[in-house]
Amino acid sequence: MVKAAGLSKVVPNGASQLVILHEIELAVMAGEAVAILGASGSGKSTLLGLLAGLDTPSAGSVHLDSVDLYALGEDGRAALRAQLLGFVFQSFQLLPALDALENVMLPLELAGTADAARRAAAMLERVGLGERMGHYPKYLSGGEQQRVALARAFVMQPKLLLADEPTGNLDAETGAGIIDLMFALNAAAGTTLVLVTHDDAIARRCQRQIRLSGGRIVA
Q: How far apart are CA 4 and CA 16, in angstroms?
């Protein structure tokens, strides 16, 4: 489902260059759950962004479901993301002017799905927010906002879910509930999961753990 070869990211840093990622080699099989671990600044989020085509590498390639991501233009990468990917971010990334139902409906509507409202409502029920569909993000707790984000990610039935520190803005108890829900939804859908985390306990729930340090895979 995911293959990165020689993936590097280098940016100018005054008179020199800063190496953020160095020749990453990574393969994730369909249906696999893989955790990417590392300290702050190790390159975890940059790697996730490159796997999603949200940034461009300095060298190397990424194939998603056998498609060469960086052989596509920006519009092509966006179309591939819409077709294949779901995202869960640390900061939720909900649109404040839309209520919970509308936030979950949005990717369905962009894809031209006829029964967007029904599918979005059903997914919000699955994540335990059946009574909160008409609430705007500012009236939802952090845990509720992340449940909306999970519903939005899974409503499109993506082949691949990318999660970047999904519990980073939540307390321990709320975060544990979100992780339980994410893994349950992922297992039910058979989705491939790439999860960035600094938490070893969360990482151990994945089938494989990959540790980054200084932009390199070290374990």
A: 26
Burial of 212 (0-12, 13-18, 19+ CB in 10 A): buried
Q: Which residue matches tokens 């999961």?
A: 193
Mean pLDDT by 10 residues, the chain (219 residues): 96 89 96 93 92 94 96 93 90 94 94 92 94 96 94 94 90 91 92 93 94 95
| CA atoms in the 13 A half-sphere facing the CB of 165 | 16
Torsion angle of the four alpha carbons 5, 208, 77, 167, in this order, in degrees rounded to the nearest 10: -140
Positive or negative, the CA dihedral 117, 121, 127, 130 is: positive
Q: Indicate the pTM of the whole model.
A: 0.91
Work out whether strand 85-89 and strand 160-164 pair parallel, antiparallel, or are unpaired: parallel
